[in-house]
Amino acid sequence: MSNNFAATSSSAVAVSNYRQENCSSSYQTEAAFQSFTFYEFFSGGGMARAGLGQGWKCLFANDFDFKKSATYRENWGGDVLLTKDVRQVELRDLPGAPDLIWASFPCQDLSLAGMGAGLRGDRSGTFWPFWELVKQLKAEGRGPRTVVLENVCGTLTSHSGKDFSAIADALADAGFSFGAVVIDAALFVPQSRPRLFVVAVANEISIPQSLLNQGASAPWHTRALQQAHLCLSSAAKEKWVWWKLSPPPNRKSRFADLVEEFPASVAWHSTAETAKLLDMMSDLNLEKVVEAKKAGCRQVGTVYKRTRFDDDDEKVQRAEIRFDDIAGCLRTSSGGSSRQLIVVIEGDSVRSRLLSAREGARLMGLPDEYKLPKSYNEAYHLTGDGVVVPVVSHLAEYLIEPILVSNHAKVEKARTSDHSMREEARAQRTN
């Protein structure tokens, strides 16, 4: 048996169990489901691929980061992966005609923690060369039936909404109907991680009415999303749809369930280090620790260090803790303040350490069989940059697959037509 993650039973555990036990859909038929194909741009460690599951066939994956690509190959093999800046990817690198293109393009210039460069930035601005490839595919008759763009919620407000409007105009101009949803991963895994998902459908593909709302609805269409919609151009609004997304089942896991007693990637702090961490807490946060000691059972909290102003209006670093069974949002590891810590309290015993690499992977919905980088920082960066696996599964199960299944005959006819057109064009060039 292959060592690739895609070929092991763990992939079935990661996705198939989630769908079979929690997400029964009347749309899905095995024959149609097995035929779906996709590209994964800005692929990282292949978390979108994990979420789509074995029934989907990856035709192409791309990332510029060689370290992330090494992890991708370790888990999925390297037959479809091209490690290259998206600006250097050419149309001839892209095989076939995908049913879906997934793109979790870089968020740094769009996030609240970034420098505000937006889509003009060197990193988030890679959306434009990516989108140029999508347009070239469409011009050649190989355009995707569906596209999913995933990014931080700051995309909605970046440059007073102009960046989101630019993305909307690009989708509309290229012949897509589209809408967006905001999904907090905490609905699926014990991690607070709201993200924006723009789901676009090619004009020639019909959308089942059961997937459409007349207007915005909670929890998917937040106030920020509704405000961003109001700022769209008239042409973009004509192509806009309000997606009707089924709610997920109640989340069963707690953060405490994911914690390792004997982590391999990090060590428990010394008594002095834990005392120093507690000393960094405000009175309000220390009170949470005191209450956790009184609980009479094991309590697990997560901690982030943040810069705050004290009573003298001076900047100080504070340790802020939460005991709500949900971890804070994983972030890319660029410094000590971005690394999440955990505190385990059992009576008067208080222990602390960094969140382990495996715990970070579990918070992203990855199974323990998924192979992580040996370097702690690389593993933390990989997961902090990724998309939560069961969120991808939910979108696929309740939006993308129903659309493709309902258009299955039309899609197959279009594929045949596209193939004939390409063969005819090739013959003309030969002659």
Chain-wise SSE layout:
Layout (H helix, E strand, L loop, with lengths): L8 H14 L7 H4 L3 E5 L5 H6 L4 E7 L2 H11 L4 E3 L16 E4 L23 H13 L6 E6 L10 H12 L2 E9 L9 E9 L9 E2 L9 H8 L3 H6 L2 E2 L11 H4 L12 H9 L3 H11 L5 E11 L5 E8 L18 E6 L2 E6 L2 H7 L12 H9 L4 H18 L1 H23 L1
Parallel strand pairs: 1-2, 1-4, 2-3, 4-5
Antiparallel strand pairs: 5-7, 6-7, 8-9, 10-11, 10-12, 12-13
Helix pairs in contact: 1-14, 12-13
Mean pLDDT equals: 86
Radius of gyration: 23 Å
**So what's the CATH class of the largest domain?**
Alpha Beta
Strand neighbour order, sheet with most strands: 3-2-1-4-5-7-6
Number of domains: 2
| Overall shape | globular
User: Which blocks of ≥5 consecutive residues have pLDDT under 50?
Assistant: 1-18, 20-33
Task: Write a short abstract of this structure.
With 431 residues, the chain is α/β, with parallel strands linked by helices. The protein has 15 helices and 13 strands.
How would you describe the overall organization of this protein?
This protein is an alpha/beta fold. The chain folds into two domains: 294 residues, Vaccinia Virus protein VP39 (Rossmann fold, 3-Layer(aba) Sandwich), CATH 3.40.50; 89 residues, no CATH class. The protein is built from 15 helices and 13 strands. The strands form three sheets. The chain has a seven-stranded mixed β-sheet, with helices on both faces. Helix 1 packs across helix 14 and helix 12 runs parallel beside helix 13. The chain is globular and about 75 Å long.
